[in-house]
Specification:
Elements lengths: L5 E3 L3 H5 L2 E3 L2 E3 L12 E3 L2 E3 L12 E3 L1 E4 L18 E4 L17 E3 L18 E2 L43 H5 L8
Parallel strand pairs: 1-3, 2-4, 3-5, 4-6, 5-7, 7-8, 8-9, 9-10
């Protein structure tokens, strides 16, 4: 069943149905919910809490999240088919994207502290004004990624593809910290 509607607070429709297209979810609390095998197509989430929800085989296609909390979400287990999500002003601490193709994703003014981006394809992705404290970037494709306004990141140039990636002068410590080099 496909819905084209705006859902505020009450999320009983979410539990009963598995496919949502062009829906807007506002102020919904999906914390610790089982959202597995749900399909969200061109949906918008505004000021929602999806922290620690299960998203096994969940499809997020062209979805946007604004002012949402998604702490601990395991995007690793989402369906990869058409996976495209955008985040603005969100909190995504401890989320995992392990081995995910994120080339169609955007991150803006979002807290990505302690996120796992290991073995991800992040080529061309922009981390505009994002907090990346203790985020893991290992064996990731960061080609042409934009870190110019990101803060507190640590990227090992030897274990990631970084050709064409953009970094500001203020971001140099995040590239050199593994070498014990102090930039002042």
């Amino acid at each position: 069943m496909i819905f084209e509607l705006e859902i505020k607070s009450d999320h009983s429709l979410l539990i009963l149905n598995s496919e949502f297209e062009q829906c807007t979810f506002i102020d919904c609390d999906f914390k610790n919910e089982d959202l597995s095998k749900k399909n969200f197509i061109k949906c918008e989430f505004i000021n929602c809490d999806l922290s620690n929800s299960l998203v096994n085989d969940t499809k997020f296609q062209e979805c946007s999240f604004s002012k949402c909390k998604l702490i601990g979400l395991q995007f690793t287990y989402c369906s990869g088919f058409g996976f495209a999500i955008n985040f603005k002003d969100c909190i995504l601490n401890n989320a995992s994207y392990y081995e995910k193709n994120l080339t169609e994703c955007t991150f803006e003014n979002t807290d990505l502290s302690e996120c796992d981006f290991e073995a991800c394809d992040l080529s061309g992705v922009s981390f505009k004004q994002c907090e990346l404290r203790n985020a893991i970037f290992e064996r990731s494709n960061l080609s042409k990624a934009d870190f110019t306004s990101a803060v507190n990141f640590s990227v090992n140039p030897e274990s990631n593809k970084i050709r064409g990636a953009k970094f500001s002068k203020d971001g140099l410590p995040g590239l050199l910290d593994r070498y014990g080099i102090i930039v002042t």
